[in-house]
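To illustrate the input format used throughout this study, we show a single complete record. The first block contains the structure-token representation of the backbone; no residue identities are included at this stage. The design step must infer an amino acid for every position from geometry alone.
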């Protein structure tokens, strides 16, 4: 069973060890010094930032991280995504990693994504959809999104997380299950 809780500052050593794992470092391209991890994850952990960093557990074992936020809380990011697709008010986004290398390739990614998306409908009742950009080169990530029920709705150039990657990105979307009307049909309401 998957559960999660907010990432806390005492979790930073674990998060650092995950960010240093080759399979995570390749795509997250994050500084792992204690100061850098505290700088980048501390504000959310302390509730000073509107994003949510969720430490995901499989049973009692921490296995990954999901970041979740409302796109309107980050206007520059919203504008970048809006260059590819119309972004409805209240739209959310997520990012994710499986930190425990023993759990990679076992279907955990799609399970994590599905679980957090389902919870998003309850936790954020005004969110009409979840939009997730992913590097076109990161096949494992976009396949996990597809397996979790998200649909590819756009592709184009976005700033990459890792400068080694090109700007080519896919944009995935899943709509709130009770979404109705032509907008839901046009974007392919997917249920996870």
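Output of the design step:
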């Amino acid at each position: 069973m998957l559960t999660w809780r907010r990432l806390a500052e005492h979790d930073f050593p674990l998060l650092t060890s995950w960010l240093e794992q080759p399979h995570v470092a390749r795509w997250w391209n994050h500084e792992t010094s204690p100061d850098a991890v505290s700088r980048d994850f501390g504000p959310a952990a302390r509730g000073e930032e509107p994003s949510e960093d969720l430490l995901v557990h499989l049973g009692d074992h921490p296995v990954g991280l999901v970041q979740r936020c409302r796109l309107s809380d980050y206007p520059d990011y919203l504008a970048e995504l809006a260059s590819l697709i119309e972004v409805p008010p209240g739209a959310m986004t997520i990012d994710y990693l499986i930190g425990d290398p023993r759990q990679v390739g076992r279907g955990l990614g799609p399970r994590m994504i599905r679980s957090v998306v389902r919870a998003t409908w309850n936790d954020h009742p005004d969110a009409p959809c979840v939009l997730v950009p992913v590097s076109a080169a990161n096949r494992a990530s976009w396949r996990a999104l597809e397996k979790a029920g998200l649909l590819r709705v756009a592709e184009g150039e976005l700033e990459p997380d890792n400068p080694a990657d090109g700007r080519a990105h896919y944009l995935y979307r899943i709509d709130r299950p009770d979404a109705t009307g032509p907008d839901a049909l046009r974007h392919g309401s997917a249920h996870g």
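Structural context for interpreting the output: Residues 152 and 187 are 9 Å apart (CA to CA). The chain has one domain: 2-187.
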